[in-house]
Amino acid sequence: MKEYNTSFTHGDALIVVDVQNDFCPGGALAVENGDAVVPVLNRWIADAEKNNLPVYASRDWHPLEHISFKENGGVWPPHCVQDTDGARFHPDLELPDRAVIVTKGVRFDQDQNSVFDQTGLAMHLQKKGIKRLWMGGLAEDVCVLASVLYARKEDFDVMVIKDATRPVEASGGEKARQKMQEAGANIAE
Fold this sequence. Notes:
The protein is α/β, with parallel strands linked by helices and 189 residues long. It has a single domain (12-188), classed as 3-Layer(aba) Sandwich (Rossmann fold). The protein has helices at 37-50, 121-127, 140-153, 170-182; strands at residues 12-17, 55-60, 100-104, 132-138, 157-166, 186-188. It has four helices and six strands; from the N terminus they run E-H-E-E-H-E-H-E-H-E. The relative contact order is 0.20.
């Protein structure tokens, strides 16, 4: 197995994808063991803070009647509806005050699975001189996958923190990891 440099360096950033109540046990679209990513991500967040590196946290922030919801032709039950408890970050996630919150999924006419989809985040990171992204969050086979693939198209080096993400379905996670690696992302064990 290939060894990776798993320590932060200048030019790195941490991206925490959608660790929200609705994606954790008891939520409207719960990922099995989704809350297990929280302590892992908290360690990475603490390390990023210690090294004075930027931390970004994305969130789905859907309006009522969002296009991704089943009753509107989508595939998901209503989830992460704006200003609801389900849309809040998991209460144990220790985001620093200086974390940049990236809001997505607000459009009525399309879904935005990637943290980069029409958010301006790629340009922002490039202006800050960020070259490598460390990513974890929920769900591995949906929003993490979309974010990783988009980041690779924008030419960022990407390290997916394997223990810091969970898929909607186990088989979906395997396929997602394969797609991410084919796109040039690395899976950090």
